[in-house]
Amino acid sequence: MSTPTNPEVKELNPVDFIQLQQYIEYCSLKVKDVLREFDADGDLAQHRHGECINEEGFRLFLKTYLEGEELPADLCQRLFRSFQNSESTQEQKNKEVFLKDVSCYFSLLEDGQPRDKLEFAFGLYDRDGNGVLDSSEVDRIIAQMMHAAEYLDWDVSELKPVLKDMMTAIDADSSGTVSLEEWVEGGMNNVPLLVLLGLKMTQKDGQHLWRMKRFNKRVNCNKCRSPLGLRKQGLCCTCCKYTVHGRCANRDPAPCTRTYVKSKKETGVAAHDWVSGNCDSKKCDRCQKKIKSFQGKHCVWCHTMRHDECAELEPTECTCGPLKDHILPPWAIYPVVKERPNNVKNGCSGSADDSELNITPDGQVLQIIPVPNTRPLLVFVNPKSGGKQGERVLHKFQYLLNPRQVYNLSNGGPGPGLSFFKDLQEYRILVCGGDGTVGWILDAIDKAKLVVRPPVAVLPLGTGNDLARCLRWGGGYDGEDLSRILKEIEGSSPVPMDRWSVQVITDENEEKGDPVPYEIINNYFSIGVDASIAHRFHTMREKHPQKFNSRMKNKLWYFEFATSETISASCKKLNESLTIECCGTPLDLSGVSLEGIAVLNIPSMHGGSNLWGETKKGDAKGLTSQEEPEVIIDPDILKVASQDLSDRRLEVVGLKGASEMGQIYTGLKSAERLAKTSQITIKTKKALPMQIDGEPWMQPPCTIHITHKNQACMLMAPQSKSSGFFNYK
Description:
Blueprint: H1 14-24, H2 31-36, E1 48-49, E2 52-54, H3 55-65, H4 73-82, H5 90-93, E3 96-98, H6 99-109, H7 114-125, E4 132-134, H8 135-151, H9 156-170, E5 177-179, H10 180-188, H11 191-196, E6 210-214, E7 233-237, E8 243-244, E9 274-276, E10 296-299, E11 305-307, E12 333-335, H12 342-345, E13 366-368, E14 377-381, H13 389-400, E15 406-408, H14 415-421, E16 428-433, H15 435-448, E17 456-460, H16 466-470, H17 482-490, E18 493-506, E19 520-521, E20 524-528, H18 529-543, H19 551-568, E21 578-582, E22 585-586, E23 596-600, E24 631-632, H20 635-640, E25 650-655, H21 658-665, E26 672-677, E27 679-684, E28 688-692, E29 695-699, E30 702-716
Parallel strand pairs: 14-15, 14-16, 16-17
Antiparallel strand pairs: 1-2, 2-3, 4-5, 6-7, 7-8, 9-10, 10-11, 12-13, 18-19, 18-30, 20-23, 20-28, 21-22, 21-27, 23-25, 24-26, 25-26, 27-30, 28-29
Helix pairs in contact: 6-7, 6-8, 7-10, 8-9, 9-10, 18-19
C-alpha cells in the first residue's frame, strides 16, 4: 500500500539536492534498467497504473535505482511531491506521478553522452513510436530539464529563455510538432543545454570547454560585454577563462586558445595568446597603469595582463611566466602526417601500429618538439578521488597548463598521455589521486616500456595517502594554490622506490576466495587485525557508498570498525594460524601472541601510522643495501635498523591488537619488529583477511611469495622547515 504524502512536508531545498546527489553519484544502474522492472513482466509491474506510479512505486523506483539503498522517508516524500503538478488538488497529490517524468529527470542527471540523453528523453514521451512529439510533450521534457537544473544549483531564470529560444528555432515551420531529428539537432547546438546534460566533449582547438560557474565578484560577458551580475551564474571556459551569459554562448563567441600550431614551420615561435576582458582593477604589466573595464587582455600561457594598446608593443614573445618549466606550450606541438605502410600502399593487407603514434582524442596525430631548459609536466587526475576535489583540480590544471598535458583518468586511463610524451627525454609526471591511483600509473609506466622512466610526484586526493606522506607531499590536498605546488615540484629531488611482486597460491582442494586486488606491493601487505578492519570498511563502503564521501567521514567509520574489532578480537592467536620464512629462514612466533602481521615497504600505513617506529640517528647503522644481509632476525640488530624505501628490503612487524594500532597512530609506541628481509614466504592454515596497499579481501588457506620486482623513480618534495619526517601540510 502507498503511504499517504504528509501535507506538512515542505518543498525540496538545496540541502535535499546535495543529499540526493550523494546517492546518485554512486549509481551503477541506468534508468532504462529500472524501467524494465515496471514492464508487464517486471517485478514492479503491480505499482504501475497506466502511465503513473503511486508513492510506494516511486519509493521502489528509487530503491531499485540506488541498488537497495533507502532514501530517508521525508526526503522521498518531498521528491515525490516535486513531480506533481502545482495545480493538482490535495486529493490528486496523495496519489500518483507520471513514470515518464520521473525517468526523464533521473536520466538527465546520470552519466552519459548528451545525444543519448536527448534521444532517451524523446523516446520516453513518444509512446506510439512515430518519431514525432507535440509541443505539450516537448514542454514536459523542458520542465524536467528545468527541474534537473535546479537540482544542480543552476539559476533557472538564465536557462529558461535559452530553452525557449531553442524551441522557437526547432519548430521553425510552426507546425506544433517536433521530430526526433529536429529535437536532437536543436539540443546539440545549444551550449547551455549541453553543459546541463554533462557534455564530455573531446577538446578540439578553438572549442571552449564550458562549465557553469557562480561569480562572487563583478564579471563582464566577453560576448555582449554587459555584467553577469554579482553572485549570478554564467558559462566559463576551463581552459582560457572566456566568460559569457548562457544565452550568449549560442551566439558565436570568440574561439578558445590554440593548444598546438598548424605546421612544423610554426614551432618555436613563442607568441602570446590573448583573451580580452575581466582585467578590472589590475595593473598593466607593460605600462604599470590601472586597467579599466574592457580595455585589457590577459595571456593564457604567461598570465600577463596588458591594455589593448600595450598588447601590441614589445616584448611580443611569451615566456610562459613563472610556470615555464612545467608548461608544454602550443608552439612545441605540431601535427604530423600519418603515412600508410608500404604493404597497404601495394594493396596488401596490414595495419599501422597506432601505439607508435601520438594520437589525441580528437583524431589529430601530434608530435612534441622539446623546449630547451624545460621539463614539461604530464598530469594525470582521478576526478573521483577526494569527493569533488579531483574534478576541481582537473579544471585548475587545464587552465594553468596546456590542456593537452592534463589527462582525466576516467577517459581512457593513462595510456594516451604516456604515449604522447614517450619520446621526450626530460619530463615529469604528477599523479592527482590516492595511493591506488599512483599504483595504477606506476603499473602503466612498466607496461609502456618507456625509453626514459620519468620521475613521479603525487598530489594526495585519497583517504590514507601513505605514499604521499613518505614523499613529503602531505596527508591530503586541502585546496592550496596549485601554482605553489608546481613550484615545489621544481625543487623536488628524484628517489628510487622499491616495488614488490606478490604471488598468492590457494591450497589445493580449497574453494576459491575473493580475487587478489593487486600483483604488486608499493606500500604494504598485511594479514589479520588491520586487514579485518579494512575489509569491514570496504564491505560497508560498497553497500552504502554515499556514506563514505569525505576523508573525515572515512576516518570516523574506520575508527568505529576498529572499536568493534577490539571487542571481537576476530584474529586472536594469529601466530598459530600461519608460518613465515624470510629468505628460507623461519621466524619463531611461538613466544608472542599476535593478531596481525604487516610487511612494510614504506614508513607509513593507515594514514600516517609508522609501525616500524623511528630509529634514533645515533643508533642507526649506516649499512648500504649491498652491505646489509639478506635477512635480519636478531632483535638487537633490528632495534637499530632503520627503514628505507629504496634499500631492496621489507620490514616485517607483528600487531597485538586493534587497541595497539591506536597507540601506534598517536606515536605512543611501535609494532613489534620481527624481521628485515629481501624476500618472504607466508603459509596460512585457515581463511584470513588480507590487504595490499589498503585493498582488502578474504583469502582461504594459501602460500604467499613476495619478491623484489623493480624500482620506480619518485619525486621527494623539498624539506619543510617546520616538519619532521611526515609533512602533513
